Structure formats: structure tokens, C-alpha cells
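Box 4.2: Ligand-aware structure prediction
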Amino acid sequence: MSTSILIVEDERAAAEYLSVLLEEQGFDVRTTCNGIEALIALEAKPYDLVISDLRMPKMDGFELLSHLRQRWSELPVIVLTANSGVSDVVEAVQLGAVNYLVKPAAPALVAGAVEKALACRRPSVAPSRSVSELVGRSQAIVEVRHRVVLAARSDVHVLITGNTGTGKELVSHAIHRHSSLASGPFVAHNCALAPRDLFESEFFGHRRGSFTGADRDHVGLLQQANGGVLFLDELETLPPIHQAKLLRVIDDGEVRPVGAEKSERVSLRFLAATNRDPRAMIAEDALREDLYYRLRGIEIQLPTLRDRSEDIPLLVAHFAGEDCAGFDAEAMEALVRAPWPGNVRQLRNIVQGASAAAGGARIGLRHLSLESMDLAASQQRGGDDAALEAAGGVPRGATLREVERQAIAQALSECEGNRTRAAKLLDIDRSTLRRKIQEFGLE
Ligand SMILES: Nc1ncnc2c1ncn2[C@@H]1O[C@H](COP(=O)(O)OP(=O)(O)OP(=O)(O)O)[C@@H](O)[C@H]1O
Ligand SMILES: [Mg+2]
């Protein structure tokens, strides 16, 4: 299949010139005359490269670029400009264009730019359109999308790790949705919320009358997920004795409900998530090593939002929604520079809150809720300070657990890891602190 290029240009002559030039070089070329038509063409079929004019009626090149980077963030775009006006080019590059050509560009310049743009594509195994629900264009998130595609195409079990709010559950849904089991069930189970003494019945199910209170048959999680996916969230809270039982099912695929006479076969895929470091859990005997190796057919590690702060404007646009009138530069800057201990979830909550507060007007610093104002004020005092300041505020939408974790992390950092001092600061005893540190994986 030849390499395909989509040209977006409203001037007939210019479009014609480029398409003839590129067809002669063996490319498969299609021309459209504005951004909207280009988006429709992209929905219909994948392209390897887009060459787009900037000034066009209906939807111009800038707007097209913002749509492209949300849905097809790895698709390279070269922009065309009628003059060498720097500001247009700068804006286009900020929006994700990989290169620009001044019209009319000499054939050799066009060929050179096309060759370079095609060379910077990711290998075709990562068709971003297939996992467009994972917003971002940083190297780190591109890598995650790549692994999600790999996971979706294979049938091994998957372990997803990453701090709170980094997108573990989102990734698990994406793997299911793009896998051959997509039409099968997706059953999610939070190991932390399940009552421990009901493990057998919850996972394996039970027959009516098999114990007091079992007044009807119950289909367990393993059978509910048969032919699909069982997502085990907060794996770190599953006691080792239950881990062993799970391991047996993974190995032999047999399930015997409580009170049943014989076993039944199941075939399902396990996706597990944890916000702790699995190797540390193994070291503490909190995670069975054999289960770990069985589950991590593929391991997907999610980056913190801080580690991919270049994605923040994109995520902001994604969460703000279509009716949002945009952000003031200082508001956006505050969002980009904030430390985000609660990661993408926290960003989503603050952006949605600001959107609601602005009621359709442009969003400014004053619309960012109190805690993010804190973030904004502290960012002027710089990096690490900002992280500490921000950890002090309670992020909207944070769970009690998240707040507790943050408070402990902050105290440890303030006391440079000295646990005795940190415990004093938190007004708890040292053994409680030690337990909490382990529980939250803060070693
Ligand atoms: N790359 C992303 N693009 C768009 N939305 C994202 C992305 N990553 C996370 N989100 C959104 O952020 C929120 C939190 O994500 P999710 O619930 O998957 O996090 P999590 O890692 O499972 O967190 P926790 O450990 O607290 O359970 C969700 O609304 C999710 O849709
Ligand atoms: Mg989760």
C-alpha cells in the first residue's frame, strides 16, 4: 500500500500544484478544501501525512491542528503559509505542526519536508486513532498507547501500574475495547472494597443453600467475566491467601462455585491495576511473586502528570469541552505549572469546575477553584516549593485516602525522610507512620 497524503488547501491552483508533484513521487494523494472536509476524510480512512494551509474558510488550519492532535496525535502535519509571517508558523508549531512550507514551495523543498515528516512517524503498530481516548502527545503517553495496542492485540494478562489518577482504569477499558474480547464482558472488581470473608462466593459464586443466607444461586465474578475481561483494581489489597486461589484459576481455568458438585471451565483475561510498586510488594510478601509473573504478560506503567506536563494543555482542552470559550494565558500557565499530586483526575476536576464557574466566558485565574489558586500562587515561588504548597491544599475530588497519602508524603519530604520528625509533625506515632508508608508505597 502506498503512502497516503491528505492535502488541505482552499486555493485550487495551489492544491493542484502540490498534488501533481506528490503523485509524481508515487504518493497516494487526496485534496480537501478546508478543515472540516479534512476531518471527514480522516474519519473515513487513515493517512500518513497531512499538508494543510492555515487560512481557509469554515475551519482554518489552526483549528484543524487542534482537532488532529486530540484524535490523531501521531499524524504528522506540515503547514503551508502564504507569507513568511513568523507568528502563524510559531502558533502552528505550538499546535503540533512538524514543519512548514512557504507557498509556492520549490519541488525539492516539498520533497525534503515530506520525507522528514514521514520519518518522524511512530511505527505503524501504534495507530493512535485506535486508542484516542488516551489524550496526550508526549513521548511517555505515546509509549503507553503503543503498549495498549500491543496488549489489545495479544491475549496475555496485563498489569497496569501508576499513581492515583494516572489513568489505570481508562487503560484497562481501552485494552478491552480494542481487543478481540471487546464483545465479551468487562467485569470490574475493586479488591479494596470487597469484604474479605466473602471472597470465595464473590469470585467463584455459590449454590443456593450452600451456607446460611445463600437463598439463591450466585454467579461469581470469574464466570461473569467468562469470555471477556476481569479487571482487578487495587490488587495490592488482595490478601496472599486469596492470591493463591486466583493463581490456581489462572493456571487451570476451572471454577467450582461454593456448594457445587463439579467445576466448570472458564476462559477469561485478567487485567490488574495497582498504584504500588509490585517489586516492593513482593519484597514485603504482600504480593505473591508467582501471581505477579502470571499477571504481567505485559506491564504498562503510567507516567505521572508532572512527568508529562506538555500534555496538560491538550488535557485541559479535552476536559473543558466544546462550549468552553478558551483560557487566559495566565490560567493556562498556572495549570501547566501546578504539581498535580492527584494527576489527571485532579486536573479534570479543576478544569470542569472552572468551566462551570465561567459559565461560557473565557476562563481566567479567578475561575480556578481555591486549591488551584493556591497552586497558581505557589508556582511563582518556583518548582519544588510549589509541589509542597500544593500538596498542602486539599484537591477537589480527592478521596480521604489520597489526602492522607499526600499529607504523609509532604511531611516526609519536609523532614527529608526523617521518620521520627515526620511522625511528630503529623502527630502520629512512629509505627503508625511506618505502616502508612508501607501501605501507600512511599518508601
Ligand atoms: N490520558 C488520558 N486522557 C484522558 N483522560 C484521562 C487520561 N488519563 C486519565 N484520564 C482521566 O482521568 C480520570 C482518572 O483516571 P482513572 O480512573 O483511570 O485513574 P486510576 O489510575 O485508575 O486512578 P486510581 O488509582 O485513583 O484508581 C478519569 O476521568 C480518566 O478518564
Ligand atoms: Mg482506578
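In the box above, the bound molecule is magnesium ion. Residues 134-136, 141, 162, 164-170, 275, 318, 344-345, 348 surround adenosine-5'-triphosphate (ligand 1) (CB under 6 Å).
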